[in-house]
Structure formats: C-alpha cells, structure tokens
Write a structure and sequence with these properties.
The chain is of the alpha/beta class. It has 21 helices and 16 strands. The protein folds into two domains: 193 residues, no CATH class; 320 residues, 3-Layer(aba) Sandwich (Alkaline Phosphatase, subunit A). Helix content is 47%, strand content 11%. The chain has a seven-stranded mixed β-sheet with strand order 3-12-8-2-7-5-6, with helices on both faces. The structure holds zinc ion.
C-alpha cells in the first residue's frame, strides 16, 4: 500500500523533456517523503487505522498517476485550480477525461479495499523517539528553506508560497498543492467573482474559419540580447531566416514583473486601471465567445509570484501545465493539438513559457549551450547562459512557426516577453527584474503572419509593417490581435492596434511595485 502511495515519486524520474531531472528539488521531495511516511508509520500503531486516515491521499495519488500517464506531469496546484474552476467555468478539461478518471478511480478503490482487508490485523510498535525525530527533521528542513528564501530578499509570504509550491513529496504534497491553489483562488476574490460574471458580447466581423492564432508569452527576455533586434551574438538565427516576421523593436512592458505584466498583456484594459484588468476577462474569453477552441499551455506553475495568472488560464477551454519541463514539452502538445484539429476548426492557443527565467542555465537542454566562454568571469558566464536561453527560445518559436507554415493556412503568432531582465549591466550591478529600468522594462516582441493570412488581409499586414517601429507597450498587443482576427468587442480600441490605419502612439505607462509611472518619469 505504501508502494502505491510512493509510486508518483518513483515514476517521476522517467518523465521526459527535462521533467524527470534528478535535481536538488527531487532529492528534497524524496527526503520529505521519507520523513512524512516515517512520522505516520511510527505514530499510529494499527496499519488499518493509518491507511483509513490516508484515504484522501489514495484519491490524490490516483489523480497524480492519471496526470503522469496522460500528460507526463505531476499533480500540482495548477491542476487543482483547474479542477476547482472546472465546476463553475466554461473549461472542459475534466469533462473530456471523465472516463479514464472514473476507470482509475474504480481500480484504485478496488486495490485500496483489498489492501485494508489484508492488513486488518497488522500492528507495529509505535516509537515516540522516531516520531519526534521525523518531526524535528521536517521542521529543520522547512525552517532552512524559509531562511534561504528570506536571505534572497523574498517576503515571508512569497517564501512560504514558494516552499508550498515546491513541496511535491508523496502522498502529502497534494495537501500542500491544494492549499496553494486555494490561496491563489482567494486572491482578489471579489474582483474574481466580477470577472466570472463578465462577458464581452463578442461578434465576428468576417469569416475566420480555419484560422489559428497563437500567443506565446515570453519570460524575462529582453530585446538587447536578440540578434533579431541587432545584438552582435547570433542568438536568433532561425527567426532571422523566417519570412513573415514583423519585429517590434520598441515595446515596453506594462510592469517589470510577471504577475502584473501577463494579465495586462491579455487584457483590453490599460495598466493604469489595474482593478479593471482583474475584474474583466482576458481576450481568451473573447475568442471563446466567437467559437474558437482555446488552449492554455503553461510551463509556469502557480507560485508566490504568478498572482492571478492561473485564474486567467482557466478561461481557456483546455488549460494544461507542464511542471518543471523545458519549454519544448509544449511543442509536443502543440503538434498533437494541430494534428487532431479538423479542417475548418478555428484555434487560439496561449503558450506560457519559462523562457529566460533565472536560473538561466536550467532553461535549456545541453545541446543549446552554444555560448560558452569557459574562462569567463561571473558576468560573462551569466550572459552566456542567458544568451543560450534566447537561442533556445529562437528554436522553440521557429518550430511552432514551422508547424503552422506546414499547415499552409491562415495563421498568426504573437510573441511578447512579460518584461526584460537586468544582467549586471552597469555600475549598479543589478540582476533580475522588478526594478523598472531600461533593462527590465523593455520586452522582446514580434508578430508573425502566415502567407495565406497575409494575402487575405494584405492591407492590415501592410499597416503592421508600417507601425512596427512605433513606441508600443504590451497593451497594444491584445487590441492588435482581436483586430487582426476580426473579433469585435465594445472595448476594442483600434487606435491601439498596429494592424489598423487609425493606429496612434500613446503615453506608455507601467506599474512598478504598486505605483504608476509613465515613460517621461523614467
Ligand atoms: Zn516574468
């Protein structure tokens, strides 16, 4: 029976695409797994009582195994959020898998009941010493993690959420994941309820059957390190060789952090009105309303930094998480989705990448470690690994574009990083983002339009090329995409769309650590 409860942890190293990495985190989860099991084993004498108490964890273990089998992913807070939102929302994730879930449940219940009968007379000596030992070690481990978090200048809340998010031991990790999910859903709950009620009343302005729109959210990727934007190192060779790409060299983030920038880049409301962004649905729902099949694939699990992003994700009919994976895990799923889509069906997919998230060297497989000045100093090594993440992103994006090109149909892709990154650039020696300077407020961004869509909407394509060099922010992009896709909603402002002849530049605002600033303040 323990083997069943431990099985997700045993199977995890077999998962592909970087997910099975036997890294520090896996070792840590293995350690807490042993400690929790030891604590339970030495505290409760009658096995049958212990395993009756563990009944909820048999259920979560079954779900964990289902997710491993179906999506090569562990049960994480992201899936708990999907499950909770599924009962109230349009997304049809679990409905689509009702049968395998039911089957897994029946098999698990059979094994469980048989096991309980078999161990009904089994008794162990309980040992207070061993129980206290396990508790002490658990407290020591979690306390050490808190100290490490605070040492990195994280707030206590962020630190705790980070630890909870990473606690994937079995079987109790599912309790940690559930508590994180509930915490995420409780955020801004009044505005979230308002958002649930909101609908755009979207209309379709032109026939858009068969069209595919893809929105790739980048992470911490600044244009200064892309050869697509003039960097001297060849970090984006594939995109430079791709036709139909319209680089947007002058895009500012709406905030130098993920939790604001991502909801804002998918919202029709400006960052100057943050509460309205929280109180209304994203453009994903506008696509739903006019009959698009919508997907949200994410390599970013809910944690202390994502804010309401997991709630936005559940607007998609099919949200899906790829925990701890390289971004390429989403490519396989993307291919499967395209292959299983019947002609005539229209699609909107959001792909939330891990991109150039710190630590950079953990974001790409070894084959992409091309920039490698072995003798370099600390900063050179940092830049090397950061540039390798850009090279990997270049490959990732060009693979998606190649798949769309092969379909030879009307399609477009928007890529936009949530914000940039400081890389010990000047005397201030700053690393990371959240600061609000020229390094973390600039976002790498471009639009790609397929040849069939370019010829269908030639006027719009020309406008975009003309406006591409303008001073833009991430807020221009959702208006641009709805305009391109021929979706009309009351909040669509065509003067924000680079595809429109009425496009006009605006003041560029951003929200930095809770206060609004415009470009002229910087
Ligand atoms: Zn970010």
């Amino acid at each position: 029976m323990w083997l069943f409860l431990f099985s997700p942890m045993v199977l995890q190293p077999l998962l592909g695409n970087g997910r099975g990495r036997l890294d520090q985190l896996y070792v840590l989860n293995l350690f807490t797994t042993v400690l929790w099991a030891g604590l339970l084993h030495f505290s409760i004498r009658r096995s049958v009582v212990l395993h009756l108490l563990l009944a909820p964890f048999y259920l979560t273990t079954a779900i964990d195994l289902f997710l491993i089998g179906m999506f090569s992913n562990r049960l994480s807070s992201g899936y708990v959020i999907i499950a909770i939102m599924n009962s109230t929302d349009a997304n049809e994730f679990f409905a689509a898998y009702a049968r395998p879930v039911l089957l897994a449940f029946v098999v698990m219940a059979g094994i469980y009941i048989f096991g309980l009968i078999a161990i009904r007379r089994l008794r162990f000596h309980h040992s207070r010493k061993m129980s206290v030992g396990c508790v002490s070690l658990l407290v020591a481990v979690y306390a050490a993690l808190v100290v490490r978090g605070l040492h990195s200048n994280w707030s206590l809340k962020q630190t705790v959420l980070h630890i909870v998010g990473n606690e994937m031991s079995v079987p109790v990790g599912s309790a940690f994941q559930t508590s994180l999910a509930l915490q995420v859903l409780a955020q801004e709950s009044k505005l979230a309820r308002q958002r649930d009620q909101h609908s755009f009343g979207a209309r379709q302005l032109r026939a858009n059957d068969n069209e595919i729109y893809v929105w790739v959210i980048g992470e911490s990727s600044r244009p200064q390190n892309w050869s697509l934007f003039g960097y001297q190192r060849d970090t984006s060779p594939r995109l430079l060789a791709t036709s139909g790409i319209i680089p947007l060299p002058n895009v500012l983030a709406t905030a130098p952090d993920t939790s604001v920038a991502v909801p804002s880049m998918l919202s029709l409301w400006p960052v100057t009105d943050w509460n309205s962004i929280l109180a209304h649905r994203s453009i994903v729902s506008a696509f739903n309303e006019v009959g698009f099949m919508t997907y949200w694939l994410s390599c970013q699990e809910p944690d202390g930094w994502g804010g309401v992003i997991p709630q936005v994700a559940t607007e998609a009919k099919r949200p899906q998480y790829f925990d701890r994976a390289f971004d390429s895990a989403m490519l396989e799923e993307f291919r499967t989705i395209l292959d299983s889509t019947v002609p005539g069906k229209k699609l909107f997919l959001v792909l939330h990448t891990k991109g150039s998230h710190f630590e950079y060297s953990r974001r790409y497989p070894q084959a992409f470690a091309r920039f490698n000045v072995a003798s370099g100093a600390h900063r050179e090594q940092l830049i090397d690994s950061y540039d390798n993440t850009v090279l990997y992103t270049d490959w990732f994006l060009s693979e998606i574009i190649a798949m769309l090109t092969n379909r030879n149909g009307p399609a477009a892709l928007i890529y936009a990083s949530d914000h940039g990154e400081n890389l010990l650039d000047d005397d201030a020696q700053l690393l990371g983002h959240g600061i609000g300077n020229q390094y973390d407020l600039r976002s790498a961004a471009f639009i790609w339009v397929s040849r069939p869509l370019r010829s269908k909407l030639s006027e719009m394509s020309k406008n975009a090329t003309d406006n591409a060099g303008a001073r833009l922010t991430l807020s221009n992009l959702p208006h641009s995409l709805l305009d391109l896709a021929g979706i009309e909603v009351a909040e669509l402002d065509r003067s924000m769309s680079i595809f429109s002849p009425t496009f006009a530049e605006r003041d560029r605002w951003h929200l930095v650590r809770g206060s609004l600033r415009s470009e002229s303040d910087d």
